[in-house]
Amino acid sequence: MAPPAQVDALGELLSRSALGDRAAFARLYQATSSKLYGVALRILRREDWAEEVLQECYVNVWRHAPEYNASRAAPMTWMTSIVRNRCLDWLRRPNPETLAEGAEEALADGGPGPLDQLERVREAGAIARCLRGLEAKQRQAIALAFFDGLSHAELAQHLREPLGTVKTWVRRGLQKLKTCLAELP
Q1: Would you list the DSSP string of 25-63?
Q2: Alpha-carbon distance 153 to 151, whole Å?
Q3: Which of 172, 11, 164 minimizes the C-alpha distance to 77?
Q4: How confident is the model at residue 96, as a pLDDT?
Q5: 26-76 confidence digits (pLDDT tens)
Q6: DSSP annotation of 70
Q7: Quick one: the chain helix, strand, coil %, rounded to 5?
Q8: Whole-angstrom Cα distance, residue 150 to residue 38?
Q9: What is the pLDDT of residues 79-123, one digit of tens each?
Q10: What is the 3 state secondary structure string of 149-168?
Q11: By C-alpha distance, which of 78, 59, 81, 61 is closest to 70?
Q12: Is the Cβ–Cβ distance between 44 and 50 less than 8 Å?
């Protein structure tokens, strides 16, 4: 979890960005882009896609900065959820050109073939559908644990909830995901 001073600094940069302060937005980008790029890359598994999605996400952050509410989430959590949701949208959208380009690259470098890539896209779509079926708190706890690598104790501190409650959210959420994924064809 980020130190309170860093959270305050990011919150201040986000507030100033909401007022149209381009210099504050540039500093916000410098302070957060490497971590958010890592989140995008872990989800999308392609550098070019991660770069494109991250650019779209920062446009969204700029546009929606006035809507940010510090009482609902820390600045980094808010921006991470924007990146995560945009990545999942990216994986869900049908785009045959992108699949064809990926297939050519994979064959050239000995990586996974087009069928393997198509299967990964299908799996990502199935996971995204199942995640949407979770309660918001379960989905947030699982996302923070998986994408940010937070432990149960860190989750409890980050979400400001009791440790037992957070453990229950994660356990029940993972059980629902497992059931949902097992029911898919």
Answers
A1: HHHHHHHHHHHHHHHHHHHH--HHHHHHHHHHHHHHHHH
A2: 5
A3: 11
A4: 45
A5: 999 999 999 999 999 999 988 999 999 999 999 999 999 999 888 888 899
A6: T
A7: 80, 0, 20
A8: 15
A9: 999 999 999 888 887 754 455 555 555 555 566 667 777 677 777
A10: CCCHHHHHHHHCCCHHHHHH
A11: 78
A12: yes
Residue carrying structure tokens 């087009």: 114
> Quick one: tokens of 65?
């900065």
8 Å CB contact between 59 and 99: no
Cα dihedral sign for 36, 83, 40, 3?
Answer: positive
Joined together, the tokens standing for residue 135 give 């309660």
Angle at 173 between CA 168 and CA 175, to 5 degrees: 100
Q: Contacts from 119-123 at CB under 8 Å and sequence distance 24+?
A: 120/45, 121/91
DSSP three-state, residue 113: coil
Q: At 148, is the pLDDT very low, low, confident or very high (cuts 50, 70, 90)?
A: confident
| Phi and psi at residue 88, to the nearest 5° | -65, -40
**Mean predicted confidence (pLDDT) in 111-138:** 78
Could you give the CA distance from residue 101 to residue 25 in angstroms, rounded to a whole number?
Answer: 33
The pTM (predicted TM-score) of the whole model is: 0.51
